[in-house]
Each structure stands twice: as C-alpha cells, then as structure tokens.
C-alpha cells in the first residue's frame, strides 16, 4: 500500500514537472526521491517506538505525500501568477515552494539523525537533494525572502516541540508537517503584514483569515498551559475560561484586526455579511443546514441505547455530514465566493473553540459535547483531540482560501484551473463520500493491501465526472477549454490516492486535486 501510494505521489510530481519544467520542479523531483527513502526510516521509527514524540497509530508516517503538498502548491502558484503577469505573487509562490521544501528537509534530517545505526545511503541521498534545493534557493531568493523562509522554519520547530508534546497521538509526522507548517506560515505572514501595514493595500478577508487562525491557535496554547496548573472542569475555571476568551478576543484579536484593515472589525463584518440580498438568502440557507447537522447529531445520540454505550455511528451515517457540507459549499461557490470565504473562516473558529470547550470540559457544555461527539469517533481520532470534523471543513475550505485571486483577473483561471475552488467539493464531498458509501455497501473486490474496494474507487471517479458536468451547467464562469483528459487523469489519480493513503484524506485529497487542476 505504501509503495502504491508513493507511485501515485510520484505521478503527480512528474505531471507537474512536465508542465512547469524549471529549476523548482526539478527540486520537487529531488525532494520526492529523498522523501521516499526517508519515509521508510520514519515508518521504522514509529514501529519500534523510537520517534521523539507520540504519533497517531494505525497509519504510516505519510512523509512523502505530505512533503510534496506545500512545494507543489508554490510551484503551480508561481506558474499561474507568472502567466498572469503578477510579479508579487509569482515571488510569493517561490517563497511558498522554498518554505515547503525546507520544512520537508528538516523532517527528513530529523528522522535520519535519530535512526540507529545511521543509514548511510539515505544520508547521502538527503544530502544531495538538500544541496540541490539550497543551491537553487541561493540563486532564486532575495535576502529578505531567505530570512522569511528561515523565520517560518524557526516557528515550525518551536510550534512542533510544543504542540506534539501537548497533543500526543493526534498527528502522523506527515500530518504534523502539513498542519503545523501551514500554521507557521500563516503566523509569519501575519507578523510580516502587521509590521508593514499600508493603508488600502491587501484584501480585508485575507487579514480576517490570518488573524482568526493565529487567534484560535494562541488561545489554545494559552489555556493549555494555564490548565496544567488548575483543574479545567470546575465552575471557577470555566468562568475564567469564558472571561479570558472575551478579554483576548476584544483586547488582542480585535485591535490586531483593526490595525490591519483600518476599520472597526465588527462593523466591517456585519456590513460584509448583509451587503446584498443574495448574501442574506445564503446565510438563511446555511443556518438551516447547520440546524440540520445538529439535528443529525441529536437524533443519532437519541438512538444510542444505554445497553450499547460502545456503539459507533456507521460510515454511511458519518457521510451525512459530507452531503450537508456539499449542499453548503456549492451555492456559495456559484453565487458568492467571498461570502463563502469569510463564512468558512468563522465556522473554523467556532469549530476549534467548541473543541477547546469539549477538551477542557468547560461548563456548561463541555461534558455534553464529549458525550454527543463520542458517537462519531473513528480510528483516526486516537489522540485527546477530535479533529475529523475540523479536517473536513479545512478540506472543503482550503481550495477557496488558497485560490490565487490576484492571478485570476476575471475571477477564474483558464482551463482546468476554473475548477480549483471546487477541489474540496469534488475530492471530499463527492469522491470520498461516494467511495465510502458504495464501497462499504456493494464493494467486493479489494485493492491489494487495503480495505478499500475497486467498486468504491470506480464509482467515485464516475461521480466526480458527473459533478464536473453539473458544475459546467450551473456555473457560467467555468470554461474548461477542452482540458477534459487532464481533469479525468487528475480525478483518477486522487481517487486512487484515497484508496491507498492512511493519512487524513479529508485534508490531503483536496490539496492534491487543487495542485493537479492548477498545473
């Protein structure tokens, strides 16, 4: 299974390399080769318990698929923005690619360094790949860009040491690279933009995303350290939690956002949300869907009898939420992507805040949330945090947030790139859902080395093709320019990756589909 997963990742890397064909795509190929070898060292460390931190079990390290996401995103973003004539975002793509490569190299060197005896061949390969990447960076980045890349690496190192210690068994090494690397990059961008505020420059919704992500992470770190010294389950602690959340929100996060957007954040948000009648209709519709999702949770818990406390929700039951999320995102993508962007940020902040309430057992809802959500746990929620629903939201939202709007003057990219914002809907909302439902109910032929079925994968590919046809009918801004073969290949590769990967597919699949469609 690991070998087939690696072959699929190499197919994506080589596809991007064939389209781009520059020094950075060659670096991506070198990075993939060394990550493939180092991945086996990480897997061995996890099996023998020799890793520094406790990682999520029942999965391989996932180093190769995770290592390639950020570099490939940077490479395809650079190419798209170069074609659109946006020099600033072309340079930004180069910084993203360089940062991703350096973070992946750091994880590789870490694995090689703690493996005993030292693997000579892997060390040589890592050294050669690292030399090629650093040489390319030396001749491609300015001094300020080099400093920016090193800042992200420094933040990543400290954030990894803190969060992997506080949250054992929540991530594989690959998932930690993706999640903590992304948070480190966002934090560095926020610091950089806060120090260089230029009035009228920058989109307020981008600042809103940066501040929201950093705000909830800092909030979690603050309370994690605080509750090491006091019991979080008492009423006094709970009151203190709510008061300090209000203080940090109104005293730190709001002023920070005010400095960036140069206006009152609350007034700006209210004006933004209710700016048009279409937005009002969408908000009412989304409220109804949110109520429906809560109804599913309460109904499934009501069915759980006192005799079967260990009863878990079935795969099909969990996929109800995928259908609800698809019904949420598709109208937003068609009618108002900016509103969807902001609403997804708000939803992410609410999800993470509710997870804090559940994790710390904050009264009056902490224990209730623990009971309600325990029904929907699966083998991937082996740590103290329940992250599956947050990963689902991220998988649907990241293609919307990472869409290079400045490099798409007409609001959409040409060819297959027009489907980039729909990557989450196609890969997770349609493909993963249909594969799970049909595979678990009708599947008989299993892929070698996995529990996934041939029928589930084929049905997922077919369903995504139908979804693309429906998008073409209902979204007039999408014009594929006869790039149907590339779309079919992209969908097929990502669907096969879903069958073989042991990583969080809700997070990984949309990003790989976005990379292929942007390429």
From TrEMBL:
Compartments where located: Endoplasmic reticulum membrane
EC nos: 2.7.1.108
GO molecular function, one term: dolichol kinase activity
Domain of life: Eukaryota
Membrane topology: Multi-pass membrane protein
Family per record: Belongs to the polyprenol kinase family.
Protein name: dolichol kinase
Gene that encodes it: Dolk
């Amino acid at each position: 299974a690991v070998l087939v997963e690696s072959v699929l990742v190499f197919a994506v890397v080589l596809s991007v390399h064939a389209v781009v064909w520059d020094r950075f795509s060659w670096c991506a190929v070198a990075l993939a080769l060394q990550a493939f070898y180092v991945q086996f060292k990480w897997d061995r460390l996890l099996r023998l318990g020799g890793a520094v931190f406790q990682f999520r079990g029942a999965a391989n390290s996932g180093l190769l698929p995770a290592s390639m996401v950020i570099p490939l995103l940077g490479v395809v973003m650079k190419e798209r923005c170069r074609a659109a004539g946006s020099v600033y975002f072309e340079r930004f793509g180069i910084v993203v690619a360089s940062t991703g490569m350096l973070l992946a190299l750091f994880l590789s060197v870490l694995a090689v360094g703690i493996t005993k005896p030292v693997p000579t061949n892997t060390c040589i390969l890592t050294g050669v790949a690292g030399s090629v990447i650093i040489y390319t960076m030396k001749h491609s980045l300015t001094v300020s860009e080099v400093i920016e890349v090193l800042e992200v690496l420094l933040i990543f190192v400290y954030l990894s040491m803190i969060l992997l210690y506080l949250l054992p068994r929540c991530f594989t090494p690959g998932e930690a690279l993706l999640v903590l690397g992304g948070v480190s990059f966002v934090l560095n961008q926020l610091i950089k933009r806060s120090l260089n505020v230029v009035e009228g420059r920058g989109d307020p919704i981008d600042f809103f995303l940066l501040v929201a992500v950093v705000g909830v992470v800092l909030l979690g770190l603050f309370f994690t350290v605080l509750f090491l010294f006091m019991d979080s389950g008492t009423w006094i602690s709970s009151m203190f939690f709510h008061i300090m959340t209000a203080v940090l929100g109104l005293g730190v996060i709001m002023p920070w956002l005010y400095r960036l957007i140069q206006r009152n954040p609350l007034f700006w948000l209210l004006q933004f949300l209710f700016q048009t009648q279409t937005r009002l209709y969408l908000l009412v519709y989304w409220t109804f869907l949110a109520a429906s999702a809560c109804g599913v949770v309460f109904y499934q818990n009501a069915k759980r009898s006192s005799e079967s406390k260990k009863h878990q929700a079935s795969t099909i039951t969990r996929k109800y939420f995928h259908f609800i999320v698809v019904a949420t995102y598709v109208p937003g993508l068609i009618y108002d992507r900016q509103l969807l962007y902001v609403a997804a940020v708000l939803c992410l902040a609410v999800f993470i805040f509710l997870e804090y309430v559940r994790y710390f057992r904050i009264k009056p809802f902490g224990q209730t949330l623990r009971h309600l959500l325990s029904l929907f746990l699966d083998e991937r929620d082996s740590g103290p945090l329940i992250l599956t629903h947050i990963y689902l939201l991220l998988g649907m939202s990241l293609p919307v947030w990472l869409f290079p709007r400045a490099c798409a003057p007409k609001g959409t990219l040409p060819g297959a790139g027009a489907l980039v914002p729909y990557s989450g809907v196609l890969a997770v909302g349609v493909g993963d859902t249909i594969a799970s439902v049909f595979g678990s109910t009708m599947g008989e032929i299993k892929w070698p080395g996995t529990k996934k079925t041939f029928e589930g994968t084929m049905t997922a590919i077919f369903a995504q093709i139908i979804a693309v046809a429906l998008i073409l009918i209902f979204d007039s801004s999408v014009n594929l320019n006869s790039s149907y073969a590339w779309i079919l290949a992209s969908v097929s590769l990502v669907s096969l990756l879903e069958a073989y990967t042991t990583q969080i597919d809700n997070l990984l699949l949309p990003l790989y589909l976005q990379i292929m469609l942007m390429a």
